[in-house]
Amino acid sequence: MINSILRFGLIFILLVLLQVLLFNNIQFSGYVNPYIYIMFILLLPVEIPSWLLLILSFGVGMIIDFYSGTPGMHSSASVLAGFVRPFVLRFISPRDGYEPGANPSMFIYGFRWFLVYTLIIVLVHHTALFYIEVFRFADFFRTLLRAMLSSLFTIVFVLIFEFYRKGR
Amino acid sequence: MRNLLNFLERYNNLIIFLILEGIAVYLLGTRNYYHNTRAVNGVRWFTYGIEEKINNTRSYLSLHEINENLASENTALRNSINRLVRNNTSVFFSVSDTIYQQQYQYTTARLTNNSVNRQKNFFIINKGAKHGLEKDMAIIADGGVAGVIVGCSENFSVAMSVLNLDFRLSARIKSNGYFGSLSWNGRDYRKATLSDIPQHVSVSVGDTIETTGYSAVFPEGVTVGTIIDFEKPGSDFYNITVLLETDYRKLHFVDVVANNKRKELIELEKQIQ
Question: Which of A58, A132, A139 is closest, CB to CB, to B20?
Fold first, then answer.
């Protein structure tokens, strides 16, 4: 228990630092802004109580908001991501269900499972985030394109991190 | 009561979700957040150390370029001083200074936080109310327009960058004086759009765009950028793409411009309305 709190604390700090120091400074033609901190929400244990998941999602969004000076933007998007996560997990659950105490990991449930899981949540999060950022429906398709491209990059980074995390 | 408890138990996730989302949307909805100095102070306290470090590194890496800019600016200033001095000695020059009031005052500041990759970009500079800065003062960098202060705390100020969908600037074509409204389209951080220039005006690529000074924020004649493209859509106005003079990714030092006659001007404008 203490061990896993410590572990997720470290992941949390690492992801926030990566996001704030590196990914917030990426400028790639104005269309690609990966938000990899969402991975924190992805990695939390399957059996985490929903209320805790929601509060943690809110927390991580809040901290990113603090550092990027965008009150409420990341918080609202990541709370939404935290809210849909249990439904996604139920929707794509393996035939014999999840083992008790399992973490959503590529190395337990397979690459395809992890990809679908990441894809849905990242898409929900990024779409919400980019529309909240612009806060208007003018340029609807351009915002959609930004959300899609950024999601693509985020997913690639999440997969790389996942490989690296278990590769050690 | 029992039903209520059952209801709460059944939908507790939804309720927590709605509460948290409500808080987030509330924060999002307070659009004048940046004008709230307490909030700015809070954020500063939270992020000051880390941003300061990032910025130090960044400005160290681009010292060479900053030096070059400063040197060229010095030369330009020296040239203009020479011109002024010659003017003053060659013609009669009044010693009394009552009419010859300085309208604009400049002060330099350093950026502590900047962004170009959002749709609504702001930057933060390291001078605030303590140094006499106020809301609605103009910010100029490398001889080009950079932004407008939207909120000040004791030691810092938040400025809305030109790269913000909400930013509007009254700008004109230098060669013929026709003015229009400049805004950012949210795509490329080097390009902005100048609208409201009627189609009978002759426009050519390479024309300089400068500020008009109508808004009492920016002084007259500050360079905004150059025209790199224009097209005639169905309406009566051009669609002009302007390459911005300032490179927002390389913003380190900026000049804050205070208009000493702004109050007077605004009061006068109020009288006519």
Answer: A58
The domain in which residue A158 lies consists of: 2-167
Q: Is B117 on the interface with A (CB under 8 A)?
A: yes
Cα–Cα dist A115/A125, whole Å = 15
Contacts of B227 (CB under 8 A, 6+ apart): B173, B194, B203, B204, B205, B206, B207, B209, B240, B241, B242, B243
Structural domains counted in chain B: 1
**Total CB pairs under 8 A between chain A and B:** 94
**Shortest alpha-carbon distance between residue A65 and chain B (Å):** 10
Do A122 and A154 touch, CB atoms closer than 8 A?
yes
Asked whether residue B21 is domain-assigned, the answer is: no
Query: Considering the domain boundaries, does residue B174 fall inside one?
Result: yes
Query: C-alpha dihedral over A125, A126, A131, A133, to 10 degrees?
Result: 100
Domain span at residue B247?
34-84+101-273
The Cα–Cα gap between B54 and B51 comes to: 5
Indicate yes or no: pTM above 0.80: no
CB contact, 8 Å: B265 with chain A?
no
Query: Per the domain annotation, does B16 fall within a domain?
Result: no
CATH assignment of the domain containing A38: 1.10.1760
Whether the ipTM is more than 0.85: the answer is: no
Q: Residue A69 corresponds to which tokens in the numbers above? A: 């000076």
A132 reaches B (C-beta below 8 A): yes
Pairwise CB contact (< 8 Å): B24 & A76:
yes
DSSP conformation letters of A72-111: THHHHHHHHHHHHHHHHHHHT--TT-PPTT----HHHH-H
The alpha carbon of residue A139 is apart from the nearest alpha carbon of chain B, in Å, by: 10
Residue B17 lies in a domain: no
Count of positions (residues) in chain B: 273
pLDDT tens for B133-178 read 888 899 988 778 999 998 888 888 888 899 888 888 999 998 888 9
CATH number of the domain residue B264 falls in? 2.40.10.340
Cross-chain residue pair B25–A76, CB shorter than 8 Å: yes
Residue A52 at interface with chain B, using a CB cutoff of 8 Å: no
For an interface test with A, which of B119, B157, B185, B190 has the most A Cβ atoms less than 10 Å from its Cβ?
B119
A14-63 pLDDT, tens digit each: 998 888 878 877 766 667 888 999 999 999 988 888 889 999 999 999 88
A167 Cα to chain B: minimum distance (Å) = 30
